[in-house]
Amino acid sequence: MESAQKQKIAVGADHAGYLYKADIVQWLNRNGYEVLDFGTNSEASTDYPDHIHPVANAIESGEARLGIILCGSGNGAAMTANKHQGIRAALCWNNELASLARQHNDANILAIPARFVNEAVAMSMVQTFLETPFEGGRHQRRVDKIRCA
């Protein structure tokens, strides 16, 4: 697996996810990841697509390997990211889902519902998501069928 020091992780959140995002960015920096932070940078009301599309663009372009996005329910963030053809954003609310999203679906963005998980769960999911490899094999065949032509 690629070392953390070589991985760029794109992050973005609206106002509901800002506080968790700030802590996630600090954790990523402490653990040797390079962070592309697309905001928001306060709790002032903002529109989640303004911060989620840049995360998806960074992954599609190869500028970042994986992404972490947050909004209140996680749904709006995941829906926005999944409009991009090269994105497989997974809405997760526990470690098992975060792990399976990587193992079976090769998810490249973790969507966190900031108003429905506590910060410890969010941080644990981030670590699980980043450290879990895609299993490939039969799962690759399925992932190959996700993208619309």
Automatic annotation (TrEMBL):
Its EC number is 5.3.1.6. InterPro entries: RpiB, RpiB_LacA_LacB, RpiB_LacA_LacB_sf. The keyword Isomerase applies. The keyword Transmembrane helix does not apply. Signal peptide: none annotated. It is an enzyme of class 5 (isomerase). GO terms for molecular function: ribose-5-phosphate isomerase activity. The active site is at C71, H104. D-ribulose 5-phosphate binds at D14, H15, G72, S73, G74, N75, G76, N105, R115, R138, R142. Keywords: Isomerase. It comes from the Bacteria. GO terms for biological process: D-allose catabolic process; pentose-phosphate shunt, non-oxidative branch. PANTHER family: DNA DAMAGE-REPAIR_TOLERATION PROTEIN DRT102 (PTHR30345:SF0), RIBOSE-5-PHOSPHATE ISOMERASE B (PTHR30345). Belongs to the LacAB/RpiB family. This is Ribose 5-phosphate isomerase B. It comes from Candidatus Opimibacter skivensis. The lineage of its organism: Bacteria, Pseudomonadati, Bacteroidota, Saprospiria, Saprospirales.
